User: Fold these one by one.
Assistant:
Number 1:
Amino acid sequence: MLPGIRIIATGGCLPEKVVTNDDLSKIVDTSDEWITKRTGIHERRRCVTETHLDLAAAAARQALERAGIDRAQLGVCLVTTVAGDTITPSTACMLQKVLDLPEDAACFDLNAACAGFPYGLRVTEGLLTEDRPYGLIVSCEVLTRLTDYTDRSTCVLFGDGAGAVVVQQSPDAPEICAVLGSRGDNQALYIDGAPGAGAPYIHMQGQPVFRFAVDAMPRCSLAVLEKAGVTMDRVDWVVMHQANERIIDHVIRKMELPPEKVYKNIARYGNMSSACIPVALNELYEAGRLRSGMKVLCVGFGGGLTWGGCLIEIGGIS
Ligand code: ACO
């Protein structure tokens, strides 16, 4: 059996600017009522002066300070994102510099779209070693700069933010039992990347993505629980990707989840892609609702189309 990892600290950073549904109704033909009813979103954050690196570094610093670890023992600095300031260098490489991380730590960005955080945990679990047992995972997205503010079907959904965790490998930590997958699809959800392909905006066919999500999320969640040999009554929190409150509620109904175990913050931040799950974990931590020994089921889906889930234990938090 592989040694597993535990989350020992969290951090987060959200840009200051709040964009309400009423603000958006002044620039596109929409309304607070439509957005609230169809998505559950009331407001989201938008970077004005903050860069991707600013958000990532602030979230990472907070997590590292709370972890109180010797940074020399950090083996991995992994950033999940679809929207770095530059294609290269990666945000993770720039974090190595601004946070003064060891030069021999593996630093790289990972793009699994909104499923990035469970992907990042699994990759980190595989890279850590006994003598370098700590990993930093930062999920940071500035989706508003990839948003077409003339397209009402997408511009109401997305926001910016960053969440970070420090994980520790330990021989007595359970494996995270990640379930990861993808279904090559370049139509339902994509962002242009090739030069000359057009403005790099998020293009999405809402209904196919919705149908994919309500199938993939319960399937992935159940597969993680089966792999871990754990039933829902032993899970303390379920933290899902926050794309649409109707998707989350569908998963609650389909899996018969106790609603009080399912954390939601979509009303305040909208869809921050891979940052949704760690931002939620950080809110749980700051509210004193994460304690050592708790098990958290994290599950996400996104462009690709990707899905990813895992069951991770909390450690070192009293
Ligand atoms: N305001 C008012 N009307 C709107 C808006 C808006 N912002 N957007 C669309 N409409 C209209 C449409 O034009 C359509 O009008 P019509 O009936 O006259 O043609 C009507 O509302 C219904 O449109 P639908 O697309 O059918 O609305 P739906 O109920 O499917 O909701 C939504 C759209 C919210 C996008 C939903 O499909 C959804 O959440 N899909 C999943 C999206 C998702 O999960 N994305 C994230 C995945 S990955 C990532 O996070 C990057």
Number 2:
Amino acid sequence: MYRKDSVAKEGDAGFPVESIRKRFPILHQEVNGRPLVYLDNAATSQKPLSVIQALNQYYSTDNANIHRGAHALAARATDQFERTRQMVKSFINSPSEEQVIFTKGTTEGINLVASSFGRKFIQEGDEIIISAMEHHSNIVPWQMLCEEKGAELKVIPITDEGELILETYEKLLTPKTKLVAIQHVSNALGTVHPISGIIEKAHEVGAKVLVDAAQSSSHFLVDVQALDCDFLAFSAHKLYGPTGLGILYGKRELLEVMPPYQGGGEMIKEVDFDGTTFNDIPFKFEAGTPNIADVIAFQKALEFIQELGKDRILAHENELLSYATDKLGSIKGFIPVGTASQKVSVLSFLINGMHPFDVGMMLDAMGIAVRTGHHCAQPLMKRFNIEGTVRASFAVYNTKQEIDTLYNSLSRIAKRKN
Ligand code: PLP
């Protein structure tokens, strides 16, 4: 039932990491007098030159508002904008491009579902299930909705290793459960959840499932039809694409009956003071002038991923994660946080006797960028009785040499207290 959605793949000795690095201008700089080691990819990934150039190109040659202009620039911009939708459709294997909605990011995608689906389909006494590991953006919108509706928010507990307790999840599911909103991969711990089984179980009681794919879509294949999820949200900026852009996928039969999220231009068919008729999907959910330039530039990020192949990207990142886990694990005073059997890209840890923020500052002084703090997962930190962690997260352009640099710096830092 909860088969492990396989993520482990063998490393690829011929992986062209050095030539990949050349495509990311930002990586080639010194920070605090040392070559930059960027290990904050779970927060946002860096952008290849092709994405940066596409933004420049759009504003230099094609800039126009889309869908309504009668002139050549408007037609070009519209074609390019809609081409991205086609590419995203293939990227997530959506049955149609109408089911691909452009948002500001994962956060807005989740809020859209909470506002629109939630307002119409969640009633007093209904139940929504999330997990104890969610990012705040997959907690707070549901809390707000439950408060407004008199519905109840239930939370799947986790083990000390950072895995969901699935037996409890099954007990939480009842005919009152209307929605399960669950992350695919934990941003704080890197745990990969057995999402297919979770979706299957929710559907058995008639609940819909929203998958927060913010941390999975950059690492492995996310196929919305294979998963059979009802909604799926992710952000372009974690996928080598621009900031301020996200994608919300939804099943057609749900999107069609959901009310609009915001009112304005583009989302209407006809407006009269007696009443307004709404546009078809996806435009019903895209009020106002969208983030045209970033949508168009996102094509280059998708092409970059396709060119390398998700399997190879995952294999490389898995090799980095297992190398880092072993190597850093040998440092005296190193305490890993989150040791699930299925993980991707993220190594969260503490150094005995030291505040994570101080560790992060010292690493920064050595040119190493990591994240410190609660990672927008305060309930998870409370579960572990900690304030926060240090988080190193890996992407396609990271190398074992960078992990060696992290190891050397961290060893020196840890020695002060251990
Ligand atoms: N969900 C998860 C698991 C995340 O890691 C993040 C961002 O870190 C988000 C949601 C929110 O994404 P965004 O800030 O791009 O909307």
